[in-house]
Amino acid sequence: MSKSCIITGKKTSTGQLVSHSNVKVKRKLFPNLQTKRLVNPKDGKTVTVTISTRGMRTLKKWDREGKKYDLNALKAQSKLA
Predict the structure, then answer these.
(1) 53-59 own/partner pairs: CB under 8 Å, 24+ apart
(2) How do residues 57-68 score in pLDDT, each as one tens digit?
(3) How does residue 39 score in pLDDT terms, banded at 50, 70 and 90?
(4) In angstroms, rounded to a whole number, what is the distance separating the alpha carbons of residues 76 and 68?
């Protein structure tokens, strides 16, 4: 499973865990990624994608507005980046 969203591009970032004594330890901050099977509106076929919950909301908005998009193209574009 890829570790980035195909819509928003969110991926794992780093940060610091800070204790009460101000000792800092590196940590990873993971986005809320889900593996979903979605119907591609361009051709009507089912596509398995890795998408963040924010990306799912964006797709809902695009559907409401009637915006045209292709999940296969977005998936291929995210693999290049």
Answers:
(1) 54/5, 54/7, 54/8, 54/10, 55/5, 55/6, 55/7, 55/8, 55/10, 58/7, 58/8, 59/7
(2) 999 999 999 999
(3) very high
(4) 17
> What is the second-level CATH architecture of the domain 13-80?
Roll (2.30)
pLDDT tens digits for range 66-77? 999 999 999 998
Distance (Å, whole) CA 81 – CA 71: 15
**Residue-range domain boundaries for the chain:** 13-80
The per-residue pLDDT for 2 is 66
Q: Which helix (H) or strand (E) holds 54?
A: helix 53-65
Q: Which residue has the tokens 């296969």?
A: 72
